[in-house]
Design a protein that fits this description.
CATH topology: TIM Barrel
Order of helices and strands: HHEHEEEEHEEHEHHHEHEEHEH
């Protein structure tokens, strides 16, 4: 059982109602953190059983202990401050959704002061019986892109090289901690490489004083440094997300602007790519994929309730094989189903039907 698998699970799952209720009671001071964690444990056990029941071999905890896919991790790093919000326009199929996710700034020297995901991984591994437990963590680029140079304290980091070095060292420590705990499958969740495919967001980067043509190389170097020295039996994937909240998204545009750097300069084993609709562009950028890497095609929408037909998905996979051999491909939903605790506008039954579809189509295509 060596990941990535032909049918993959990106990571986050819709939170069950009892988990929403417990979190609200915890925030109101009605229950303790230990009582909240007990509810989380129970919900994760159920989610694991359901993932195994639909046939998935890549098992996650659904990110049930998080509110945001990135904030809950980054705020545990010394030197990171979470405050206020950063105004963001999310796109929907009927208009726009204004939302201000918490702002990440660097207010001091970065340090890895505690194991962040180890206890969560150890619990997941203890209740997984039929698959490989996968840990999803935000990409290190999430500490830079939205704020750029202005979001990093000048006294702490007068030179950006030292900032990137310290950020990479933080990730090296966390990944080493996970490996010592037995983790062999890690996924980095990265919005920024996908954002740099969108003309409007490329312009925003320019307005901040960054070069959108050079940032992908800088980010590839940062991620590679973060993964420096990882053992050969640790599989690392990266998910490129265009934004995912309440079925809305931020970025649009195909992968062509970053494809060559993404596939040929980034030292990861697998790429989880959003390919659910026209905003994702065509499959031509896959021509840069090296023969020893895997592109996991996110063809099943995690945003829309309609469950796609097996033929729709199979036809898209066949289309992708014009650019890359079938043995270098795999299948997943386009993103997680709840990158934030709000969740997307679909039901739990639809979520599980979509994951089962991935398993069934993979069994048919790669039989």
């Amino acid at each position: 059982m060596n990941p990535p698998f032909q049918a993959e699970n990106v990571g986050s799952l819709l939170r069950p109602a009892r988990l929403h209720e417990a979190r609200a009671r915890y925030q109101q001071g009605v229950i303790s953190q230990e009582e909240l964690r007990a509810v989380e444990d129970d919900a994760i056990c159920e989610a694991v059983r359901k993932q195994e029941a639909v046939g998935l071999e890549s098992i996650t905890d659904g990110e049930f202990r998080r509110t945001f896919f990135h904030i809950d991790f980054l705020e545990k790093l010394e030197g990171i401050t979470i405050a206020g919000g950063i105004a963001t326009k999310f796109h929907t199929r009927t208009g726009q959704l204004d939302f201000a996710p918490p702002r990440v700034t660097v207010s001091g020297k970065l340090r890895h002061r505690e194991d962040i995901q180890r206890a969560d991984f150890e619990f997941l591994a203890s209740v997984t019986t039929k698959g490989v437990p996968k840990v999803t963590i935000p990409s290190p680029t999430m500490a830079h892109f939205r704020g750029g140079r202005k979001g990093i304290d000048l006294q702490a980091y007068p030179e950006m090289d030292q900032f990137f070095d310290d950020l990479a060292a933080v990730y090296q420590s966390e990944i080493a901690s996970l490996y010592r705990a037995g983790c062999r499958y890690v996924q980095l969740d990265d919005t920024n490489l996908a954002y740099l495919c969108d003309p409007a967001l490329r312009q925003q980067a320019k307005d901040r004083g960054d070069d959108p043509d050079e940032l992908p190389r800088a980010y590839a170097a940062l991620i590679n440094a973060s993964l420096a020295g990882v053992p050969d039996d640790l599989v690392v994937g990266i998910h490129l997300c265009r934004g995912n909240m309440q079925s809305a998204w931020v970025a649009e545009g195909g992968y062509e602007p970053v494809a060559q750097v993404l596939f040929q300069e980034l030292d990861v084993d697998a790429y989880f790519l959003e390919y659910d609709d026209e905003r994702s562009g065509d499959f031509a950028p896959l021509r840069f994929l090296p023969p020893h890497k895997v592109a996991v095609l996110g063809l099943v929408s995690s945003k829309l309730p309609r469950v796609e037909s097996a033929k729709e998905i199979t036809d898209r996979i066949n289309e992708a094989t014009r650019h890359v051999p079938l043995e270098n491909l795999a299948l997943s939903a386009q993103c997680g189903f709840a990158s934030t605790a709000h969740g997307n506008a679909i039901s739990e039954d639809e979520q599980w039907a979509k994951l089962k579809l991935c398993v069934d189509v993979a069994a048919q295509v790669w039989k």
